[in-house]
Design brief:
Keywords: Ion transport, NAD, Potassium, Potassium transport, Transport. InterPro entries: K_uptake_TrkA, NAD(P)-bd_dom_sf, RCK_C, RCK_C_sf, RCK_N, Trk_Ktr_HKT_K-transport. It comes from Streptosporangium longisporum. By secondary structure, this protein is of the alpha/beta class. Strands 3-2-1-4-5-6 form a six-stranded parallel beta sheet, with helices on both faces.
Length: about 220
Amino acid sequence: MHIVIMGCGRVGSTLAHILEDSGHSVAIIDRDPQAFRRLRAGFRGRRVTGIGFDRDVLEEAGIEAAGAYVAVSSGDNSNIISARVARETFGVDNVVARIYDSRRAEVYQRLGIPTVATVRWTADQILRRVLPEGAEPLWRDPSGRVVLAEVAYHPGWVGTPTRDLEAAAGSRLAFINRMGETLLPRTDSVVQEGDVLHVLAVETDMDRINKVLSSGPEEEH
């Protein structure tokens, strides 16, 4: 696949190297030619100096043959504009834009532009390392509303069908870690001792979900 990256900062240059090592062709755009010094000496991709939402610049980077476009410059507006040009003008379906203002993420999602809200994501990663396990979500959507989180549960839930646990908690059981293996819940799945449960839920529901699961099913019903 040919992939075009806008922004040759630390993130862009790292992505370029990883993608090239994975066998993809890469073109990277930056308005500052000095930024390309972050690329290793053996980088084989295209280096294009210019603005990432300029059509001529994008064409020079091979946007017309691109299977994906990534906008990771330091400017939110530039990232979104260039991602929209790649999507709407050149028909690139697989686009993603980095942003710093997470409050705007939901708006961008409605425009069909997947986003990575840098500040919120970074904060989550730090909190996951300094707080007790399970205290912070493993993932949250760009709007910040929906989270994937590990949940603790009362031993009384062992032996309970997962569908009953979901009904009691009012949330979706996303997956189970069991003896080092990741399993998707099935209609006949049962909670086993040692299972690590992960739910997908609206973040404001997490306190209620944790309260329900920290009580045994007998106490709940």
